[in-house]
Each structure stands twice: as C-alpha cells, then as structure tokens.
Amino acid sequence: MPLPPLERILLRALLEHLPDSIYFKDRQSRFIRVNAALSRWAGAAGAKELVGRSDFDLFTAEHAQPAFDAEQRIIATGEPLLACEEKETWPDGRTTWVSTTKLPLRDLDGTIIGTFGISHDITARKQNEERLRKLTRAVDQSPVAIVITDPAGRIEYVNPYFERVTGYTVAEALGQTPRMLKSGAHPREFYQSLWETIASGHDWTGELQNRRKDGNLFWERATISAVRDETGEITNYIAVKEDISEHRRAEAEKRALEAQLEFAHKLESVGRLSAGIAHEINTPGQFIADNLRFLSLSFQQLARYFAAVQDLRERAAALPQLQPELAALAEVDTEIELDFLRQEIPNCLTQSLDGTAHISRIIGALKDFAHPHAAGRSPADLAHLIETAAAVSRHEWKHVAEFTTEFDPQLPPVPVLVDEFNQAILNLIINAAHAIAAALKQRGGTKGRITARTRATPTLAIIEIEDTGTGIPEAARPHLFEPFFSTKGPGGGTGQGLHVVARVVHRHGGHIVFTTEVDRGTTFRLLLPLEALPSATPAPDSGARFSPAQPEPASTIPTSS
Prior knowledge:
Elements: H1 5-17, E1 21-26, E2 31-34, H2 36-42, H3 55-58, H4 61-77, E3 81-89, E4 95-106, E5 112-121, H5 123-140, E6 145-149, E7 155-158, H6 160-166, H7 170-173, H8 188-199, E8 204-211, E9 217-228, E10 234-243, H9 245-316, H10 323-336, H11 338-370, E11 378-380, H12 382-392, H13 394-397, E12 401-406, E13 414-416, H14 418-443, E14 448-456, E15 460-467, H15 497-507, E16 511-517, E17 521-529
Parallel strand pairs: 12-14
Antiparallel strand pairs: 1-2, 1-5, 3-4, 4-5, 6-7, 6-10, 8-9, 9-10, 11-13, 14-15, 15-17, 16-17
Helix pairs in contact: 9-11, 11-12, 12-14, 14-15
C-alpha cells in the first residue's frame, strides 16, 4: 500500500535533512535504505551506494560483529535496543562513538522483516568525558590540595590530598568555607585583599599559615582563580594549594645555619686578631704597669724623704732665725696641698695597677675564648670555661647584675666541643643580662643577680645559669628554641641565641630544660653526659628540632647544697 503524498514528503524530509544517521536493514542486517547523513558518515557517494551492504563492509569486525549480534537478537525477540552507546572502529583506524536506538522492522501483518535504527554522533561528548575522567583522575591523584567553592566561598569540592593535609574529610568540608582552616596568623586586611583580588577576576598567589583539624599549624602556597561561565559571570573559585611546611622549615634551618656560619667566621676572625690586639694593648699596657710600679716605688722613696724633711722642720722650729723660711715652706705645703697628695697619690697608683691587671685578665679571657680549639671533644674544666665567658661578656652584665658562681669541686673534666660550649654559655649569660635589664626597667631597683652553677651526678654534668629577670611568658615557652624566635620584640634580638644553645647541647648528646616564673626569673639547665659519645667528632647537625623544654623530674637532679 503506497504512502500518501504528505507522508512521503515528511519521510523524505526526515531522511534527507536529519543530521542523525537513519537506516533500515533486512533480516541479514543488510542496508535496504539509509539517509543522507549516514552516507556522508560512511564516506559513500550517495545513499544508494550502501544498499545491500552491511556493517562488515564499513567497519572492522570489532564493531561489526557486536552490532550484527544485537540486530539478530532484536529480530529473534522483538525487543528494541534503546540509547545504546557503541564504539565504531573504522578500517582507516578512526574511532567514533554513537548513541543508537534500534527497533524491529515489521510488515503490514506485523511480521518482523528486519530492523531500523537511528544513531546520534556522540564522539565529541565521549572525548570530553575521557578528558574529564583524566582530569578527575589527575586531580584526585594530585600531590597538591584542590578546593572549589561557589561565589560565596562555600566549598563544593575537595580532592583526597586536601583530606590528607588538613585532616578534614570531604563530608566535613563540603558546605563549609575556607575559614574552617583559619589560624589567626594573618590580619583581616590580608584576607580582604585576597577576596578583592579574586572577586575582580584576577588570580591571587601567596602563602598562608592555616590550622589542621588536629590543631597543628601548617603553611601553604596557594593560587586562587575565578571560573567564569559563557556570559562572563563568576561561577566558582578554584584554589590549588601546596603544603610548604617542610620547605619553610628547611629554609628556616638554612637561615639558622647561615647565621651560625657567619657568627663562626666572626669568631674565627676574633681568634686571628686577638693575638695582635693583645700585643697592641699588652705592650703599652706593660709600659704603663711598669711605670706605675716605678712611680709607686719612687713615691715610697719620696715618702721617706718627706718624713726626713718633716723631722728637720720640727727641729728647726726651735731656731728663731729660721722662722721666716719655715713660714714660707708652710705656704708652699698649703699651696700644693701636700697632705692631700701624700694620701691620694698612693691610692691612685694602686687603682691604676689594679686596672692594668684587670685589662690583662680581660685580654687573656678573650684570647682563651676566641682561640680555635680541637675539632673533637676534649676534657675541659667547665668552671674555667664559664668564668671565661663571664669575663668576655662583663660589659653586658656589669651595670645590671652581680655575677656569682657555685661550682662543684667534685665535677671532673667534661668532654665538650670547647668552642661551641663557650658560645652556648656566652649566649645564656647575655640572655640573662638582657632579662635583668628589662626587669629593672619595668620594676626599678639597683642590680639583679646572675648565678652560674655546676653539679655532678654519676652520669651527667649539670650546668645552670640562673637570673632574676623578667621570666618567660607562657605563650613564648613552646617556641623558645625555634630559630629566629625572640621574646625581645622587633629589633631586640636575632632569635638565634637560644636556638644555638639548644643545637650545641643536642650535638653533645645532652638535654636543655628550663624553669621560669614571670617577674621572678629563669633558670636554664644543661645536662651533658660525663662520657663522650662513641664518635670523637660529631656528625654534621641533622637539623633536628627542639621541643619546648619542661622542668625535669626532681628525682633525676640532685639538689645543690
């Protein structure tokens, strides 16, 4: 029964102009009619060229055989195949994808005489999906944290690395804002500038200190960008964040080592120059001391002479004819203040001799302190080393503190790296002096006190440096031995002193602890082994970090008597 004219027109329009492939097949899955789109898809000159051919003539068996099997099942069962995605492989190596719907083709009696179907090209979509899968896989496996938020900053996506870095699960993060990681380390203006930058469509790159779920702080280097839709409206923000905590820690260690190296070079220079300085000062100092001794002896002789003159004057007083001369001599005595000179000149000479002796002691201490010692540990008298450091640093404490010592005479020589031990004790004494100076400025008073002690246990040498300074604020205590951390405020210190002390103690295989009370003072206690470590020369410092020191149990440290 022929189709009415209108239906033929509609069918022709459908076959000729629909961009999807339409085809009709017989029971052997051979084409009996195709539309123009399929002929173009197959590269045929026209639709008639494909009539009588099958998928085996167009595609490789990899696609043709499954397609044939599916069509035969439709013919056998009458069940359609709906929206099936098929991968087409062509003889020239091309791969395409189609979404296909196939149905049984029936005659007027309802008998199945073949199949017909329509295939929609989804190659571009499948390629995009594959790219998206690769991107998703890359994001999921990325060694950086990725966070996507909506325009209001609410988190819509985080990758697995975000979970590992922050400790928050995906479920905990979704719907929250990045403020959940806020550490309080940055001022409000910092975040305001960040948001102004990304809201204007510009990328923001910078470093942030955030807080993990467990409360620990960490550093991230982040780049945050705006995502726009086709109209230019911002739909999302994406942040790519790298955990740089170890990098920053390594940089801090590097700066600390560089600072220590620079200081070591300065000490080395002092050591080289100290001999020359000592010569420059000692030589004229010796002249001065010799001359002062000469003057002292000479004055003693003059004193004998003055005594003889006085005796003659007393005898001459009985002779009237000498009275005018004696009166003139008395006037000279009064004019030159002879009695004052006879009393003060010996005092002046004594003080000058004491001063030159003190200069000699200071120079000796400086030479001893700065002189390079053996690279390895060597047994040393800790009391002598502490006294040397105190002499070298006297200018730091002499106006603010009295320096006292309580040395254990039973403490044997202790194997130490002399140069490093000297530096550690010097740093502690200077720190103590600065703390006392700050305390005097706050509460007034005349002088504080620095006390250096040594004690011994069967296995340890214990060195204490105690001060009556300001004490250490509680908030500063966990960070006291960190490099570049200072309790003295901007410009008050480099933050290297106690870090160097802790590293020196670590290299000796010892421990450093402290007790402190605000407004009362602090005691630093160094516990060093009495026997050297197996290696005579320490390995280069591994960069170990020092946790906040805590007072040791009382049972482990004998009480000083």
